[in-house]
Specification:
Layout: H1 7-12, H2 21-35, E1 37-38, H3 41-47, E2 56-60, E3 63-69, E4 75-80, H4 86-99, E5 110-114, E6 120-124, H5 131-136, H6 146-166, E7 171-172, E8 181-183, E9 189-191, E10 198-199, E11 209-211, E12 213-214, H7 220-225, E13 227-228, H8 230-246, H9 262-271, H10 289-302, H11 313-321, E14 340-342, E15 366-371, E16 387-388, E17 408-409, E18 427-429
Parallel strand pairs: 1-5, 11-15, 16-17
Antiparallel strand pairs: 2-3, 3-4, 4-6, 5-6, 7-10, 8-9, 12-16, 13-15, 14-18
Helix pairs in contact: 6-8, 6-11, 8-10
Length: about 425
């Protein structure tokens, strides 16, 4: 493998971008030269045994993913760009650019690229299946005892904190969900699938992008009013937390006919002082009930209707790691389909827990104006939740089992160009 200044020039030359494409190409070339290594096409052909069908892990939004083994013994996952996917080309570049400088134990590792004659991304191979497969579709779900589930919650929180505040480029993932969390051989969670992720520039308060995500995980202000900020990732994380505790999928919840979804049910029981009743019964013997109770409250704080009341991921990590201390009272969770009204004045965060080194940051907002598309690379054989997108893209695998494409819906969202000084328009649920 050799480094090359011209790799990304060759990679993006055939692609058509918006008027800023020259800047993007310069950035990609610089990143490729400084941060990444190039794999030859012949190396990847040999590693995957000529992309043999037996080595296919899944079908992603812009092409198949294959398992491979390099000469040095490393196992890899090779993501192949389909020549027929125009949207995939954009997501391919997006994912390559965003992951090029990302290095964190809780984010999937991009090992390198191949630009000629085919466009390929090379990742570390993740041994275990996705969290989605293990949590909702496996007879061996008991392997996820409470300690492992808590470690997954904490690991994903740390990964998101890195993306939002500590990485070279601040990133909004946009599609945090159980099927985009992979588990390695030590059960360390890895955030995957950055095809829909967006940069979060500190010097910009608004960027035009597209609405895309998975039903059951998307924040209401994003779905209904087009407002995207890091608090959308916080909301999605809160949903995953409550799913891990209950073993129930938010979008398929049906345990209580009086509740619309898992969030509604968890909040109802919390207000009655019975929040521990959402705990999956198989966890009773292994669970630390104080820890479970705190995680339920954190999950509810993260899914509050008003994005400004949700804690930052830095606060979430502090709340998860400290031994004791009172947490704030969560307000009613928000979810698409409920009625909202706009806040007349700036709201203050209700999450004051973890004040040491955890002050709330002003988060820029990305205003979205149309539907977008998604791609994926997760390790599950998944008929997963419906995803809001314009293109019929799917979910592929970097991990241990095959997957099938998600069903997608197209939903245009139109928003006005005005916003508050921080670029947010917080929404409150109407009682």
């Amino acid at each position: 493998m050799t480094k090359s200044n011209s790799f990304f020039h060759n990679l993006v030359k055939p692609f058509k971008f918006n008027p800023t494409k020259e800047t993007q190409e310069e950035e990609l070339e610089k990143i490729a030269a400084q941060e990444q290594k190039i794999f030859s096409f012949q190396t990847l052909v040999a590693a995957t045994k000529k992309f043999h069908p037996d080595n296919k892990l899944g079908q992603g939004g812009y092409g198949p993913v294959f398992k491979g083994k390099l000469e040095d013994g490393r196992e890899i996952a090779v993501k192949k760009l389909s020549q027929s996917s125009s949207q995939g080309k954009k997501e391919f570049i997006n994912e390559a650019k965003l992951l090029a400088r990302v290095q964190h134990r809780n984010v999937v590792n991009l090992l390198g690229f191949c630009g000629n004659p085919e466009k390929l991304l090379v990742y570390e191979y993740i041994v275990h299946e996705s969290l989605d497969k293990l949590l909702f579709k496996s007879a061996n779900r008991e392997i996820l005892d409470w300690k492992r589930r808590y470690d997954i919650i904490l690991g994903v929180a740390r990964g998101l904190l890195y993306l939002h505040e500590d990485s070279h480029d601040r990133i909004i993932h946009r599609d945090i969900k159980a099927s985009n969390i992979l588990l390695d051989d030590k059960w360390i969670p890895k955030i995957a699938d950055f095809g829909m992720a967006r940069l979060y520039p500190e010097d910009q308060s608004h960027v035009n992008t597209r609405v895309a995500g998975t039903n059951g995980y998307m924040a209401p202000e994003y779905v209904m009013h087009g407002n995207l900020s890091v608090k959308a990732d916080v909301y999605s994380f809160g949903v995953v937390v409550l799913e891990l505790i209950s073993g129930q999928k938010n979008s398929a919840f049906n345990l209580d006919p009086e509740c619309q979804n898992l969030l509604d049910w968890a909040y109802k029981l919390y207000k009655k002082g019975k929040s521990l009743e959402i705990l999956e019964s198989s966890l009773a013997s292994s669970a630390d009930l104080d820890q479970v109770s705190a995680c339920i409250q954190i999950g509810l704080l993260c899914t509050q209707s008003d994005p400004q009341q949700r804690p930052t991921m830095r606060r979430v990590v502090v709340m998860l790691t400290r031994k004791s201390g009172a947490l704030d009272e969560p307000s009613r969770p928000g979810y698409p389909g409920t009625r909202y009204r706009r806040s007349r004045g700036p709201a203050t965060s209700s999450s004051t827990a973890g004040t040491s080194g955890a002050s709330s940051s002003q988060s820029s907002t990305i205003t979205t104006v149309a539907t977008g598309s998604t791609s994926g690379f997760v390790g599950s054989h998944s008929h997963s939740s419906t995803t809001t997108t314009a293109a019929a893209t799917g979910t592929a695998a970097l991990g241990g089992s095959r997957s099938v494409p998600d069903r997608k819906l197209e939903r245009p969202v139109f928003v006005c160009s005005t916003s508050d000084p921080h670029g947010k328009r917080p929404m409150k649920i109407q009682d």
